[in-house]
Design a protein that fits this description.
alpha/beta; binds nicotinamide-adenine-dinucleotide; seven-stranded parallel β-sheet; two-stranded parallel sheet; binds thymidine-5'-diphosphate; 42% helix; 13 strands; Rossmann fold; 358 residues; single chain
Length: 358
């Protein structure tokens, strides 16, 4: 049985954060969870539907840049572990509006680090085990050619405002470990997919458009490669890292599932054709593919060497892409109302009603 922890999860209403909160509630009844989320466009309380506040779980709406709020939460809740997901996470948005990425991803991470430093490393701090886990991305390493893998030793070479902001925050976390001895760990993960992903990202976007018979925008030649990881595998890896990882270390997390974008799009089209039937004009959904202007600075290939986390912590992904994508499509089909409220924006009415009149 693991020891008790009081965990601050930032961004717990987003895609990966919500899956992580669900995993904790299912498997770690002895942990206390405080979910701090600003509920930006990407934060959705429906992602945690069915979970109510209890002695084990509490939701706090707020900004990771708000030092006063962070101080209060750390002190009142006696936070000993931070799992930091909160971020602006979409590359296309970072190209059209980078400012929010600098603010949340860099300044927000800095605010959390400062609070942890003050609360955990002050003379008054009681003894205890602390861990600051910063959840980052493989995009900090840049772009691969046809061969090779990103290891933890690969030099950073970020190419988009998103990846540059994440690389900056990774450097800050690392600096707090080396300079102040803050017990910090970084994970750099490949592309996630699974339930509750906001439909601006490739897989849920293609699902939604394909189901509705809309065009499927494929950037460039469609041959860019991503290493797809099922979100529950990622969440299990994070749990291993906070329970068994070595502070000052970084761990790459990957799915061992390299796919070209066009292969992913075709797989979703074919699954939908077989599950709900072809389009009304009897055309297969693949006919909806449209090659569109490439993303600026589009990284060609990402692929992870995850041997460190496998050898040191015994973690490896369990889900194959074939099974994971089918399960994901089934989840989106069974939760069409979730998709609709996200697409039409009414999910935000829900939290306005719940929180803004308090
Ligand atoms: P997401 O966009 O789905 O969710 C982000 C969450 O953070 C939302 O709930 C949002 O409301 C919250 N948030 C944003 N700004 C905030 C602020 N200033 N204060 C408090 N909360 C704020 O993101 P995701 O896909 O779940 O990614 C989570 C983390 O994992 C991010 O740090 C991302 O960089 C990293 N990551 C994601 C992937 C992926 O494939 N999605 C891969 C590797 C790493
Ligand atoms: P995305 O889900 O945005 O993740 P990331 O940019 O962090 O890897 O995109 C995954 C891949 O799919 C990426 O190569 C860009 C491509 N893509 C499209 O071809 N069309 C789209 O509409 C989107 C959103 C992405």
């Amino acid at each position: 049985m693991e020891k008790n922890k009081s965990i601050l999860v930032t961004g717990g209403c987003g895609f990966i954060g919500a899956n992580f909160v669900r995993l904790l509630l299912k498997t770690r009844p002895q942990y206390r969870i405080i979910n701090l989320d600003l509920l930006t466009y990407a934060g959705n309380l429906h992602n945690l539907e069915g979970i109510s506040e209890s002695t084990q779980y509490r939701f706090a709406k707020g900004d990771i840049c708000d030092r006063q709020l962070l101080d209060t939460l750390f002190k009142n809740e006696q936070i000993d572990t931070v799992v930091h997901f909160a971020a602006e996470s979409h590359v296309d948005r970072s190209i059209t509006g980078p400012a929010a990425f600098i603010n949340t991803n860099i300044i927000g991470t800095f605010s959390l680090l400062e609070t942890a430093r003050e609360c955990w490393l002050s003379e008054q701090a009681t003894s205890g085990e602390y861990c600051f886990l910063h959840v980052s991305t493989d995009e900090v390493y840049g772009s691969l050619g046809e061969t090779g893998y990103f290891s933890e030793e690969t030099p950073f070479d970020p190419r988009s405002p998103y990846s540059a902001s994440k690389a900056s925050s990774d450097h800050l976390v690392s600096a707090y470990f080396h300079t102040y001895g803050l017990p910090a760990i970084i994970t750099n993960c490949s592309n996630n997919y699974g339930p509750y992903q906001f439909p601006e990202k490739l897989i849920p976007l293609i699902f939604h458009n394909s189901l509705g018979g809309k065009e499927l925008p494929v950037y460039g030649d469609g041959k860019n490669v991503r290493d797809w990881l099922y979100v529950e595998d990622h969440c299990e890896a994070i749990l291993e890292v906070i329970e068994k990882g070595t502070t000052g270390r970084s761990y790459n997390i990957g799915g061992n599932n390299e796919k070209q974008n066009i292969e992913v799009v075709h797989t979703i089209c074919d699954l939908l054709d077989s599950k709900v039937g072809q389009l009304p004009n009897q055309q297969p959904r693949r006919s909806l593919v449209r090659y569109v202007t490439d993303r600026l600075g589009h990284d060609r290939r990402y692929a992870i060497d995850a041997s460190r986390i496998k050898n040191e912590l015994g973690w490896q992904p369990r889900m194959s892409f074939e099974k994971g994508i089918e399960q994901t499509i089934d989840w989106y089909l069974e939760n069409s109302q979730w998709v609709e409220t996200v697409i039409d924006g009414t999910y935000q009415d829900y939290y306005r009603q719940m929180y803004e009149n308090r």
